[in-house]
Amino acid sequence: MAPDPWLSMYDSTCQIAQEVAEKIQERNRCQRNGESSSKLNVAIRSLLQNLKEKINHLKDLLLQAISTHQITQLEGDRRQSLLDDLLTRQRQLQASYKNDGTETDVIRSSLMTGGVKRGVTNPWLLEESEETRDLSFDDIRQQQQRIIQEQDAGLDTLSSVLSRQKQMGHQIGNELDEQNEIIDDLTNLVENTDDKLRNQTRHVKMVDKKSTSCGMLVVIVLLLIAIAVVAVWPTK
């Protein structure tokens, strides 16, 4: 089974975040040793920009998948949690790069975990959509329940359509079987009729041949009688 594109992109984005963390740690070590870190800073800025773009792309893909019902609500929530945690890490790495005093703990945590911890939820990082911005928690829950009910109704309708199509398929199959039986009967009838016709044709030819032979025999007999009569008839 082919891997999910969103999850594949998420894994590659986590690898970029891990690479940024390692580069920042290397830069800090160079700074402590009095070595030049300009090349590392350029590389870190490029990686951070790439990380930001990939996270935005993941966000767009997730919103599209949820709005078009390509994934279930449960899977959408799980991926949202992964994306929230990745956003948190991206902001921590950005702060570490700017040397605001948090890079030591952030880099140590990043290197020890080896990536984003899946399952951590921070729902306050993503921008809320305009549809739910003015809604209460109860309103949002009712909206989600309504969406689930609409999805269930759609699935029920789809199931009914598939059931009807299955019944139609069975009916068409039965009709085809009956038509095939009728065709077989007609084929047998035509073959029998053809055999009878050939037999009758042969019989007619035989009768015609016999009739012709009898006619010739009668003519010959009559000629012989005529000759005999002429022969015995007294002449004057």
From TrEMBL:
<feature type="coiled-coil region">
    <location>
        <begin position="41"/>
        <end position="68"/>
    </location>
</feature>
<keyword id="KW-0813">Transport</keyword>
<dbReference type="InterPro" id="IPR041875">
    <property type="entry name" value="Syntaxin-8_SNARE"/>
</dbReference>
<dbReference type="GO" id="GO:0000149">
    <property type="term" value="F:SNARE binding"/>
</dbReference>
<keyword id="KW-1133">Transmembrane helix</keyword>
<comment type="similarity">
    <text>Belongs to the syntaxin family.</text>
</comment>
<keyword id="KW-0812">Transmembrane</keyword>
<dbReference type="InterPro" id="IPR045242">
    <property type="entry name" value="Syntaxin"/>
</dbReference>
<dbReference type="GO" id="GO:0006886">
    <property type="term" value="P:intracellular protein transport"/>
</dbReference>
<feature type="transmembrane region" description="Helical">
    <location>
        <begin position="214"/>
        <end position="233"/>
    </location>
</feature>
<dbReference type="GO" id="GO:0006906">
    <property type="term" value="P:vesicle fusion"/>
</dbReference>
<feature type="coiled-coil region">
    <location>
        <begin position="176"/>
        <end position="203"/>
    </location>
</feature>
<feature type="domain" description="T-SNARE coiled-coil homology">
    <location>
        <begin position="145"/>
        <end position="207"/>
    </location>
</feature>
<keyword id="KW-0832">Ubl conjugation</keyword>
<dbReference type="InterPro" id="IPR000727">
    <property type="entry name" value="T_SNARE_dom"/>
</dbReference>
<keyword id="KW-0472">Membrane</keyword>
<keyword id="KW-0597">Phosphoprotein</keyword>
<dbReference type="Pfam" id="PF05739">
    <property type="entry name" value="SNARE"/>
</dbReference>
<dbReference type="GO" id="GO:0005484">
    <property type="term" value="F:SNAP receptor activity"/>
</dbReference>
<comment type="function">
    <text>Vesicle trafficking protein that functions in the early secretory pathway, possibly by mediating retrograde transport from cis-Golgi membranes to the ER.</text>
</comment>
<dbReference type="GO" id="GO:0005770">
    <property type="term" value="C:late endosome"/>
</dbReference>
<dbReference type="GO" id="GO:0031201">
    <property type="term" value="C:SNARE complex"/>
</dbReference>
<protein>
    <recommendedName>
        <fullName>Syntaxin-8</fullName>
    </recommendedName>
</protein>
<keyword id="KW-0175">Coiled coil</keyword>
<dbReference type="GO" id="GO:0048278">
    <property type="term" value="P:vesicle docking"/>
</dbReference>
